[in-house]
Input
Amino acid sequence: MAQVNCPKCAAPIVLDTGNKFAKCSYCGSLIFFDRSGAGFYYAIPFKLNQNDAIGTFRRWAGGSTKAKDLDRLANITSVTKKYFPVYLFRRNINGKEEVIVEPAGSTILPGLHSLKVPGGDLKMFDASFDTNGAELIKPDIEMLHYLDKLPGTGKEQALVYFPIWTIEYTFNGTQYQVVVDASSSEVFASIFPTRSSAAYILVAVAGFIAFLALGFLATVYLVPALILMAVTVIAVFFLSLTVARRM
Output
């Protein structure tokens, strides 16, 4: 059995072989261990409840790049509350402290490789921390996987459980998934239904050709060409408005 000191109170902690977590019998802190040593074990509380997360998703789905009516027609099939593990490294790089965050769990969920940990929201994960039923995803990537590649010198390393909502939904018969950051309200999605740009391009090309033809016409018949240009502007405007409403 290995013995290390608690990073919080310096009391001795005995760790069983193969176990990555231990509880300090003096201060009650849960400590994370791997082959690189011991570090603090933090968690970030959820700022968004389930209804807030769904509302955030709906607002995201109503964006201009999303398929028309995705916010209304997306059929949510599951909403899951999770804590995803990440490693937090505080490094001294060229005299400045920088924070680097890397995933501690294998994942194909979108966005979990670019999470940003808000420093003021870190809470020591101990017996008093309430997960409120969130699923704890266990880390399966060793900290050493990152340590050898990090710049600068280390000041602190920690395992942080990050709050997320995973939302699965269907749209036009296809299944999609998004992740809602429950601390910052960011939405991450690698694939989502997009608004088609073909109709917009067609209107733009038609307008360009019309103005080009009217430009040549204006060299011979200026007044009729100007009138036709005004009509063309109005026509292009209403065509664009129709496409925006229907596509």
The first helix runs from residue 50 to 61. The chain has a mean pLDDT of 80.
